[in-house]
Automatic annotation (TrEMBL):
Gene3D superfamilies: 2,3-Dihydroxybiphenyl 1,2-Dioxygenase, domain 1. Residues 4-127 form the VOC domain. SUPFAM superfamilies: Glyoxalase/Bleomycin resistance protein/Dihydroxybiphenyl dioxygenase. This is VOC family protein. Keywords: Metal-binding. The keyword Hydrolase does not apply. PANTHER family: FOSFOMYCIN RESISTANCE PROTEIN FOSX, LYASE, PUTATIVE-RELATED-RELATED. It comes from the Bacteria. CDD domains: VOC_Bs_YwkD_like. Pfam families: Glyoxalase.
């Protein structure tokens, strides 16, 4: 049966900009980077500390995905953090706009949202 999330795949509009965002701002480690000549596309495998991964793709001419108003389908990608205030401060220092921190009414855990360079909604969820 299912054991967890192995990876989440993201198609970006500006590969160098998104690569910098996920590696330099979010601090994800590069596992592998490959240019696929037949597709004129990059595939960047990024590691999170828990072993899960993000695959970042570039595809020429990929259409934009609607985020607002929220469309059916995958709603957002949430990252576990120990200290949400510290991560929010880091993101803001890097020029990333972050929504105000809220408290989940069911778990009493703090969370907030921000976006990647293509407007993909990302969440920080404090687990500690």
């Amino acid at each position: 049966m299912l054991k967890g999330i192995h990876h989440v795949a993201i198609i970006c509009s500006d590969y160098p900009r998104s690569k910098a965002f996920y590696t330099q701002i979010l601090g994800l480690k590069i596992i592998a980077e490959n240019y696929r000549e037949i597709r004129d596309s990059y595939k960047l495998d990024l590691a999170l500390p828990d072993g899960s991964q993000i695959e970042l793709f570039s595809f020429n001419g990929a259409p934009q995905r609607p985020s607002f108003p929220e469309a059916q389908g995958l709603r957002h990608l949430a990252f576990k953090v120990d200290d949400i205030n510290q991560v929010v401060q880091h993101l803001q220092q890097q020029g990333v706009e972050v929504e105000h921190i809220r408290v989940d009414e069911y778990t009493n855990k703090q969370y907030t949202f921000f976006s990647d360079p293509d407007g993909l909604p990302l969440e920080l969820y404090q687990t500690a």
